[in-house]
Amino acid sequence: MRKTTGLLSLLVLGAAVAGPVASAHAAPATASAASACHRLVVKVNSSNNKALSADNSHSYKKAIGHNKATQKYADQAKAACRRARHAAEIRRSLDGAQDGAQAAERYNKRAYIEHDGRAGRRAADAERDVKARLRIALHYS
Questions:
Q1: How far apart are CA 60 and CA 53, in angstroms?
Q2: End-to-end alpha carbon distance in the chain
Q3: If DSSP codes are grouped into helix, strand and coil, which group holds residue 25?
Q4: What radius of gyration do the chain's Cα atoms show?
Q5: Is the dihedral of CA 47, 79, 102, 97 positive or negative?
Q6: Are residues 44 and 94 in contact, defined by beta-carbon separation less than 8 angstroms?
Q7: Which 8-state DSSP code applies to residue 129?
Q8: Closest by alpha carbon to 67, among 102, 24, 107, 23?
């Protein structure tokens, strides 16, 4: 009787170990797509934070470059997230973030060329709005 119990527990243990291994091979295709989406949204957020930091230190020319990078990464993230679970919400927030980054770029150009401090503050405000929209995208990605 002991031999069958040991054999039975060995079979159950073998089935338990084999179950997750077999299912793990199918998962990476969707997981890597979701990971790419999230990675790019994090990249957009990082670029926007750099632009906000440059604005706060009145380095408007650097902020212009970071705003352009934010727009570029947002475009890439929209393409990568088109098949995500909450694709509509992510796309909407990335569109808003891209629009805000364009506005911030315009304000930074004005601040840089005309030495206008008010335009620099408006650029920082636009980048804070972008940051709020990116929080939504990060939540859904």
A1: 10
A2: 54
A3: coil
A4: 24
A5: negative
A6: yes
A7: H
A8: 102
The whole-model pTM stands at: 0.75
The whole-angstrom separation of Cα 10 and Cα 5 is: 8
- Rounded CA-CA distance 3/18 in Å is 22
Q: Would you give per-residue pLDDT tens digits along the chain (141 residues)?
A: 555 565 555 555 555 555 554 444 444 446 787 888 999 999 999 999 999 999 999 999 999 999 999 999 999 999 999 988 899 999 999 999 999 999 999 999 999 999 999 999 999 999 999 999 999 999 998
Q: What is the DSSP string of 70-83?
A: HHHHHHHHHHHTTT
* 78: CB partners within 8 A, 6+ apart: 90, 91, 94, 95
Q: Where are the beta strands (DSSP E) in the chain?
A: none
Q: Which amino acid is at 31?
A: A
> What tokens does 40 get?
């790019």
Q: Which two tokens stand for residue 16?
A: 């338990």
